[in-house]
Design brief:
63 residues, alpha+beta, two-stranded parallel sheet, 1 helix, DDE_4 domain-containing protein
């Protein structure tokens, strides 16, 4: 397993997407955004954005 970015220190209970949004919003975190025309594949719990691509809900992908 290769970790691209680790953010420790979030207090309390929060959903992963909320933590990710906050981390990306602060330039001091140095979040590694993908190069132009590239994106990260993410879980269905996240929303599609310019840098994240999530699968469609309730669709079976036969990979």
């Amino acid at each position: 397993m290769i970790f691209t970015f680790v953010y420790a220190g979030w207090e309390g209970v929060a959903h992963d997407s909320m933590v990710l949004t906050e981390v990306m919003a602060a330039p001091s975190n140095n979040f590694p955004f993908p190069p132009p025309s590239k994106y990260y594949l993410c879980d269905v719990a996240y929303t599609n954005t310019r840098v994240f691509m999530a699968p469609y809900r309730n669709v079976r992908y036969w990979l």
